[in-house]
Design a protein that fits this description.
heterodimer; A: mainly beta; 5-stranded mixed beta sheet; 4-stranded antiparallel beta sheet; about 0% helix; globular; B: mainly beta; 7-stranded mixed beta sheet
């Protein structure tokens, strides 16, 4: 079974600063997709960013970017110019790939606190 | 942006009762999923559904659980005889394709078993 590890249960950052959330995963597939989801206190799951494993270029979405290291099976999320609205639980979620029908495997999550 | 809609937002039920959680996926999506999140824990996959049948299910999805797409728009999760440990937030999700597209999540149904 695929495993996903988010080693930082909690992180904090000052408003306007940069923070990086780490994620490592295990898979035997060569082609798959990786996602970061944000879960604010409302508990809605909101997509932050997506990365295709076959692409070497790291995905970027406005203030959010990833550092994808395929060989190391690492997929970290960098948030630049942090805003108060970024405060939430963040989940790393690779898509299993292969014969799996789109199943996402979630990490334990990282609670991000943003200080004004 | 299109939305996945779940009802009810909160359901309280007595242990041993049957519950049905409702979801309306995005209309052109073909893949449907249920996940659950026990309070304070990670989100866990329950089941995926494609072409009117279960594609994959987890160990959690035992005989007490079933899913159905009774018409062209709804996607339901039934728990036949609820247990206290079924208390969780249940998320429905849908995606257009199997892999590359993002899964759109509903806002969740909080199930409380008393």
């Amino acid at each position: 079974a695929q495993t996903v590890t988010q080693s930082q249960p909690e992180m904090s950052v000052q408003e306007a600063e940069t923070v990086t959330l780490s994620c490592t995963y295990d898979t035997s597939e060569s082609d798959y997709y990786l996602f970061w989801y944000k879960q604010p206190p409302s508990r809605q799951m909101i997509l932050v960013i997506r990365q295709e494993a076959y692409k070497q270029q790291n995905a970027t979405e406005n203030r959010f970017s990833v550092n994808f290291q395929k060989a190391a099976k690492s997929f970290s999320l960098k948030i630049s110019d942090s805003q108060l609205g970024d405060a939430a639980m963040y989940f790393c979620a690779p898509n299993a790939g292969g014969t799996s029908y789109g199943k996402l495997t979630f990490g334990q999550g990282t609670i991000l606190t943003v200080h004004p | 942006e299109p939305e996945v809609t779940q009802t009810p937002s909160h359901q309280v039920t007595q242990m041993g009762q049957e519950v049905i959680l409702h979801c309306v996926p995005i209309s052109n999506h073909l893949y449907f999923y249920w996940y659950r999140q026990i309070l304070g824990q990670k989100v866990e996959f329950l089941v995926s559904f494609y072409n009117n049948e279960i594609s994959e299910k987890s160990e959690i999805f035992d005989d007490q659980f079933s899913v159905e797409r009774p018409d062209g728009s709804n996607f339901t999760l039934k728990i036949r005889s609820t247990k206290l440990e079924d208390s969780a937030m249940y998320f429905c999700a849908s995606s257009e394709t199997r892999d590359r597209d993002r899964a759109f999540f509903g806002q969740g149904t909080r199930l409380t078993v008393v």
